[in-house]
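lol ok so funny story. i was supposed to be doing the assay writeup but got distracted and ended up predicting the structure for this chain instead. priorities right. anyway since i did it might as well share w the group, maybe its usefull for someone
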Amino acid sequence: MPAELLALFTTAFMVGLSGALMPGPLLTLAIEESTRRGAGAGPLLVLGHGLLELLMLFLLLLGLGSFLAQPTVSRVVAVLGGAVLLWLGTDMIRSAMAGQLQLTLPGDKDNLPALPPRPALRTVTAGGLISLANPYWLLWWATIGAAFVAQAARLGAGGVAFFFSGHILSDLGWYSLVTAGVAAGRRVISQRAYRYLIVACGLFLLVLGVLFIAAGYRGQISL
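and the output, tada:
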């Protein structure tokens, strides 16, 4: 049993890390939030993301996977998720173009005003909402995630715990590294470059939102 649990933990960690490393809405939001809150943005976003995934885990244990895999459901999720991504992307671009993003963090030695971070609860909530807006996140849980949960459940409560721990730790490690890197780098690149970075991230979300809506409309959402 211990060997099986370790194998499950390791596999869940590697599969989760492979997904976390791919560019997506949560990575884009992590970059934007790190310009406001610094390195602490990563753990807060992953907390919101993880709470949503914990809820999904329990729902899958109750048999939700077969419902999410239905074509009509996946199409509706894609369209609604795309609409949320369009809204988030537009808000990021608007904030950057309006000059609401500053280069410094509280405690920097220069006198430039620092952008006040959003409330911690809002950052946590954003981590969950950005995941919920991504139809591929739901489809991953309806297919790959459901298969993992079924395997973990056969090992009992310990199996479920080891699976989820491995999965969420991959997200926590990666996004903490990303936000720490961006927070450190903001002191050596210009304010204009940071605004361009946020605009680029916003544009990425707009493109992703359009693609999600188009895929949902055509019924071509797939892993």
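The radius of gyration is 19 Å. The chain is about 80% helix and 0% strand.
back to the writeup now i swear
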